[in-house]
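Can't paste images in this forum, so I'm doing it all in text. The chain is below; anyone willing to post the predicted structure tokens underneath?
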Amino acid sequence: MTYYAPLVSALVTLVLTFVLTTGKAGIIVQDIPNERSLHDKPIPRVGGVALMAGVMSGWILLFGSLAWWTALPALGLFVLSLADDVRGLSPRMRLIGHFIAALVAVSGAGVALLWFIPVLLFVVWMTNLYNFMDGSDGLSGGMALFGFGCYGVGAWLAGNGAFALLNFSVAAAALGFLFFNFHPAKVFMGDAGSIPLGFIAAALGVWGWQQGYWPFWFPLLVFSPFVADATVTLLKRARRGEKLSQAHRSHYYQRLVQMGCGHRNTALAEYALMLLAGASALWGIGLHREGQGSLLLGWGIVYLALMWRIDKHWQKYQFARKKVTDV
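Text version of the structure:
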């Protein structure tokens, strides 16, 4: 029966997303366009409720293999983030909740004292960066599909079918969500979906590392399309002295959409990047240490080249817009 868990996750998410978007909930909780938005009209922001319901439905069938220090903090973050979607919470309250969830996960995973603080910060950062990258049709759902699917394959290759199914259930829920979220999006996941997803990505990544299924760098490379964009954008904004909590549209994926690639093409390009990053991460598990280092260095060069190219096109785009405005 446990083998049906991913199917259950996908179906629950699919059906519940349809119900929520066609009912009153879709009207009550909407994403209103602001400085960060790439959309010009309100869109229901209830997809995270359906997605998390799908994940938990699949996980219930795998209850014997489920770690409480992953499931309970994820549920706690879901409740906290749903309250933020509906009423709005202060950044301080949200961050405290993120740190508490990360502390529970890192302690539960049994991370050694030497690694405790770096891993704790990694979990908090993953929790937040997933939310930062949730701003274009199909992007976050696609990263969940490819990222957790890759985790599942890695766990399966390591011989742990139950842990693989836990990850495949998250990927399947993301697939059900994408049916409504791919361009043109009919629903967004909101913080109630993106915050728990980011946490789960970090927590399951740490769990697999602690169990010896993959090296410590594996989760970073699997989710590197999000990690690289969010981290570099944050550092650049900090260097410019911008208020980091302020809404913006300076992520690389946002600039691609603004420069004319559109939501659909940006998502497809990101999917290709996600697939390549995940496949190379799985391949890299079997390499010797020097080979793994070369793999990571290679990906660092790839991301620097991609960012350099987008920055150059962005400068030309801004210059062209300024000329039109001046005329």
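The longest helix spans residues 289-326. The beta strands are 30-31, 43-44.
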